Amino acid sequence: MATTPKLHPRNQHSDGYDFERLVAQTPELESFTTRNPTGQATIDFQDVNAVRMLNRALLKTHYNIDFWDIPNGYLCPPIPGRVDYIHYLADLLADGSSQEIPRGRHIKALDIGTGASLVYPLTGQSEYGWHFTGVEIDAGALKSATQIRDVNGLNITLRQQNNPKDIFRGVIKTHDTFHVTLCNPPFHASMKQANKGTQRKWAGLGKGHSSKLNFGGQNAELWCPGGEIKFIARMVEQSMEFADQCLWFTSLVSKKDNVQTLRRILGKAKVADLKIVEMAQGQKTSRFIAWTYMNKKQRALFSVG
After folding, report:
1. CA separation (Å) from 189 to 53, 160, 265?
2. Are 129 and 104 in contact (CB under 8 A)?
3. Best exposed site among 104, 132, 178, 288 by fewest CB in 10 Å?
4. Mean pLDDT score of the chain, rounded to an integer?
5. Using only C-alpha atoms, what is the Rg of the chain?
6. Given this model, what pLDDT does residue 303 score?
7. Mean pLDDT of 74-86
8. 225 falls in which pLDDT band (50, 70, 90)?
């Protein structure tokens, strides 16, 4: 009998959502809850407002975030899958430090495309105490992220990327050093492709046709010319310029078929080490690619300023 792939062992959501606990912390969630055919509490995941309220409840209950909201039209990310990336990044860093999970503000993480939701810094800081620097090109998203940070009184650095062709350039300063960079890149090559992808997803879930993009999303969040491959290739190219300032560069890769192409690109970049880390999330498997220009000895000696 096949078993459903599980989230990371440290993921607080690996046993599903405890709606009783969530509603107790965020009573407004109750009006969005329904019952599935087996009688379990759930929400309508096609309803953007319901997903937003669920996220608000999850962030308050599990990550001590008292205020969280995003403007209409921005990506409303699924919390369990996003925090899984953080947990696997912790494992990646532990691999170079005698398997001890790294915790504390001396661990520096750079979040490329932090988004209006600020989801990676919020969950990563709560789980491991790391210091996050979030980078965003969209002014509206940056304004939302800044509000979430300030209302909650969090120490998160936010920077605007002013050049749409740049990823690391312009936002990694001369004095900066980071243990890890992370990114959820735009994965479609066009808005038309993004819409088609959403329709396929809803059909696969038996939801029929939907005019809404899955969980919303602005152009910069969903697509870029050349799609995921082009974006990550540009990331690799620019990472060479900051090879001694970042211990590990990483990015999610939505399409498994893209992995081999990215391996070839990274081979040409002459990286010292390359890892593909698979993450099981419900009915699907996602993955991220990680590369470093430092050998094992250099990685063991790496420290941030």
Report:
1. 30, 23, 19
2. yes
3. 104
4. 87
5. 19
6. 73
7. 94
8. low
